[in-house]
Design brief:
Number of domains: 2
Number of strands: 8
Shape: globular
Low-confidence stretches: none
CATH superfamily of the largest domain: Dehydroquinate synthase-like - alpha domain
Number of helices: 15
Radius of gyration: 20 Å
Order of helices and strands: EHEHHEHEHHEEEEHHHHHHHHH
Distance between the termini: 38 Å
Structural class: alpha/beta
Strand content: 5-15%
Length: 386
């Protein structure tokens, strides 16, 4: 293993009824800004639980965070924070809301143009404290230091990562996910699955514990993911998915190993150009990254097929790799996520724009070996079409 530093300061309150912990998790002297999305938290009564827990606090609200959070919307929240002298921000929603708040709390204290945080990886020296109440398990943003923000005016979808934007706490109550549409549930499972694959499916690095952790998360997502669409009100299934999604990207399984992330980098541009859901792009691209890089990833592909999918060890390596890729594709399709671009009635006509975005964003060398060039990315797009 490589040397590493492990740091994760986020306190997790997990389980039914844990939203009540807000009453003690946030100091009553602090002015709190509640940030959320389109209002689903009022339909599923999460909003009522939050406000009841914070009845002794001074609470302001800002709604309207988009599924792929917009830079311009985030900056409106920053202005609102400055005008109202907000002390603490509470994100209530899925990964998009939490990602938005990470950028917001950094931008609110940033000296200079906040766009530089995303476009130039500018350093962050101070942030407003924030916490989260998770309602959609998918991104792991509730327990990591990553954020992805879109700026549609520029056709950009960029990410940043900084240790100062770990949530102070996150509340994970599986019951808050009962009313999610099946599409969002499936997207969340696919998203979490690919997060694990980006950290796991590289090459042997003598890190058996990280491998076993990753394989356990993958198996859990496969098993529970197929159950939840049949029985969406099974608490244990929801709990297992929620915890698996958090562990998929809480930085633990990446420690000491090289990671990939090519699928995400290409996928971000499919969202920016085509407007597809994030998880939809991952389901399209991952099987073709696996196929395109099968020689470099051969050892881990074989291990993945055997350990995660239970493929017969007596088969040849080529057969195991083929089955591993096929079973991955079939799982995504079963979860309701098509694995081709053409399935969304889209054309190849915007491939040039996707490659140009990759070029502008400096994505010349992707993958764990930094050997996926722009030409390779185009070939992966071609393979992903149908």
């Amino acid at each position: 293993m490589d040397n590493f530093i492990y740091y994760n300061p986020t306190c997790i309150f997990f389980g039914k009824g844990e939203i009540k912990q807000l009453a003690i998790a946030i100091d009553r002297k602090l002015k709190v800004l509640l940030v959320y999305g389109g209002g689903s938290i009022k339909v599923n009564r999460v909003y009522d639980q939050v406000m009841n827990a914070l009845k002794a606090h001074q609470v302001l609200e800002f709604s309207g965070i988009e599924p792929n959070p917009e830079y311009e919307t985030c900056m409106k929240v920053v202005e609102y924070i400055h005008v109202n002298n907000v002390d603490f921000v509470l994100a209530v929603g899925g990964g998009s809301v939490i990602d938005a708040v990470k950028f917001i709390v950094a931008a609110a204290k940033f000296k200079g143009d906040p766009w530089d945080i995303l476009a130039k990886n500018a350093d962050i020296t101070e942030v407003l404290p924030f916490g989260s109440v998770l309602t959609l398990p998918a991104t792991g943003s509730e327990m990591n230091n990553n954020s992805v923000i879109s700026r549609r005016a520029f056709n950009k979808k960029l990410f940043f990562s900084h240790d100062k934007v770990y949530p102070v706490f996150s509340i994970l109550d599986p019951e808050t996910t009962y009313t999610l549409p099946s599409r969002q549930v499936a997207n969340g499972i696919v998203d979490a699955f690919v997060h694990v694959m980006e950290q796991y499916l590289t090459y042997p690095q003598n890190a058996p514990l990280q491998d076993r952790f990753a394989e356990g998360i993958l198996q859990t997502l496969i098993e529970e993911g197929q159950k939840v669409l049949i029985n969406p009100h099974n608490y244990d299934v929801r709990a297992n998915i929620m915890w698996a999604a958090a562990l998929a990207l809480n930085t633990l399984i990446e420690k000491g190993v090289k990671t990939d992330w090519a699928t995400h980098m290409i996928g971000h541009e499919l969202t920016a150009i085509y407007g597809l859901d994030h998880a939809q792009t991952l389901a399209i691209i991952l099987p073709n990254v696996m196929k395109y890089k099968r020689e470099k990833k051969a050892d881990k592909l074989v291990q993945y097929a055997e350990r995660v999918w239970g493929v017969d060890k007596a088969l040849s390596s080529e057969q195991k790799i083929n089955l591993g890729i096929e079973k991955t594709r079939a799982f995504f399709e079963k979860m309701g996520n098509p694995t081709t671009i053409s399935a969304y009635s889209l054309s190849k006509g915007k491939f040039d724009a996707i490659i140009e975005n990759l070029r502008q964003n400096g994505r010349f060398q992707l993958g764990e070996h930094q050997d996926i060039t722009l030409e390779d990315s185009r070939k992966i797009l071609e393979m992903s079409f149908e």
